[in-house]
Amino acid sequence: MEILLTVAIFLPLLWAGVISIIRNEWIAKGGAVAVSAVVFLISLVLFLNFDFSKEGFQFLTRVEWIPTLGISYQIGVDGMAISLILMTALLFLAVFIWSWRIEDRPVLYTALFLMLETACLGVFSALDFFLFYIFWEGMLIPMYFIIGFWGHDRKVYAANKFFIYTFFGSLFLLLGLASVIVYGYFQSGSITFDYLEHARMGYPLWLQTLAFLLFGIGFAVKIPMFPVHTWLPDAHVEAPTAGSVILAGVLLKMGTYGFVRYSLPMFPEASEYFVPLIFTLSVIAVIYAAMMAIAQNHIKRLIAYSSISHMGIVTLGTFALEHDALNGAVYMMIAHGLSSGALFFAAGFIYDRIHSYEMNNLGGLARYLPNFAIAFMIAGLAGIGLPGLAGFVAEFLVLLGTFKAHPVWAFIAGTGMILGAGYFLYMYKRTMLDEELVPEERRRKWSQLRDLEPHHILPFAMILTVAFILGIYPKPFVDIMSHTARLVLGG
To answer: Are 224 and 231 in contact (CB under 8 A)?
Structure first.
């Protein structure tokens, strides 16, 4: 069973190399769908075979890589990691199906997304600092080219801004990794990059404080947290649809994953010390980003700000240092990955049909695109936490757990969540309804629009079905995610 995790990680990279040599459009597209489907099925098998009653990491593989430096190929998963891996595999499968009709350099496009899938799965699986950092940085290169090659008008600017911000954050992460590795060397007399050994080591408060800040800057930029969030709206606005889906659905989760995997267990005293700072930045993100979303006229910019707001809820639940809140934070990573992915698919569909993201140019589309209107509505309701969908369970757990220890912060964040309903309903009204404001000429033109096609329907169906399952029957998923809460918080 352990070998399956390695296969899932590197199969996309292997196929990227194959299609780069063959350079056949249909082999690239069909093979990418097949490979991503296999990765999803492997992830599902690992997820179903994960034993949440056992402590520690599962499906462990360790192979010596550079023994003189204490570097090994070591991977494994806990409840959070296996859940994120399954979600990542699902979103990449949806992206490859959605992109079936891409005509602009399809082989390169497919190869870059396959490379990106390997990097994302590797980040969530790595239990060696050196391996983790390689995957972490490896994600940056394909996403840079995806935005820069297939983006919109200001794509080069957005790609450069994305690269500069994330690379800047990664430098601080590298310094943080170096600090704990050097300390471990002076303590034990040998160099090791083994995460499990460092998690058991116990650092003095001064090193915890320093390392928490260095790691935290790297993770905060990736999330992104306020005030290092400004790269995200630009990246989303200019990125192609598939790039936005992976950026919001997967890449943003790497930052919050890093806080849960590294900051909380390795620097517990520093994490508790910085709770007021993290809470302040999180609540600002929840309220400020939601208000910014309401002020937008551009669909993708609105969804981008909503992502910043939702990730503020995740960091709030993470640093509440309470089991229910941490379960909710991990659940929110999955729920937001699904809902934001579906919303960016919806924005991309509108652009494909209307060639505009500006709400001033839209309105009344529900009459002409009824099937799309239903999918768009469900995706938005999942994002704002309607009962019966995944977002409700996540937000409820975060607020419940946070309220137990920090009732004032929970109340403030809860009021910010109300704004979420405001910006989605505003966007839906402006795009799907308001038919009386649409000029007659535009109505005649839109009467010829095609509704959802099979390569659109399948990604929506996959994502929204999972959102319903997570919302209607959350217990087994909460049990699996509780596995991480026990590892991190004890109990």
So the answer is: yes
In what helix (H) or strand (E) does residue 73 lie, and over which residues does it extend? strand 71-77
Instruction: Examine the pLDDT at 227 and tell me if it is beyond 90.
Output: no
Element (H, E) at 64: strand 58-66
**Quick one: tokens of 402?**
């946070």
List, in sequence order, the alpha helices (H) in 355-452. 365-368, 370-384, 390-405, 407-432, 440-446
Contact indicator for 118, 148 with CB cutoff of 8 Å:
no
CB 323 within 8 A of CB 370: no
Secondary structure letter of residue 163 according to DSSP: H
The residues with which 126 forms a beta bridge, in sequence order, are: 75
Q: Is 77 helix (H, G, I), strand (E, B) or coil?
A: strand
What is the DSSP secondary structure assignment for residue 320, as one 8-state letter?
T
- Listed by start position, the domains of the chain span 275-491
- Residue 202 pLDDT: 84
Tokens of 17: 């190399």
Q: How far apart are CA 137 and CA 27, in angstroms?
A: 28
Instruction: Judge whether 58 and 127 are in contact, CB under 8 Å.
Output: no
Nearest to 134 by CA among 195, 83, 73: 73
Structure tokens at 93: 């499968």
For residue 114, pLDDT beyond 90: yes
Q: What's the pTM value of the predicted model, to 2 decimals?
A: 0.95
Amino acid at 83: S
Alpha-carbon gap, residue 455 to 471, rounded angstroms: 25
Backbone φ, ψ for residue 290 (5° rounding): -65, -40
Report the alpha-carbon distance of residue 485 to residue 413 in Å, rounded. Answer: 22
**Beta carbons within 10 angstroms of residue 213's beta carbon:** 18
Contact 143, 251 (CB under 8 A): yes
Q: Phi and psi at residue 64, in whole multiples of 5°?
A: -60, 135
Q: Mean pLDDT score of the chain, rounded to an integer?
A: 90
* C-alpha atoms less than 13 angstroms from C-alpha of 365 in its C-beta half-sphere: 31
Residues with Cβ within 8 Å of 44's Cβ and at least 6 positions away in sequence, in order, are: 86, 89
Q: Which of 488, 78, 77 has its CA nearest to residue 322?
A: 488
By residue count, the chain amounts to 491
Q: Please report where in the chains the tokens 């009653």 appear, as a residue.
A: 53
Q: 349-358: per-residue pLDDT in tens?
A: 999 888 888 8
Instruction: Answer for the pair 266, 211: CB distance below 8 angstroms, yes or no.
Output: yes
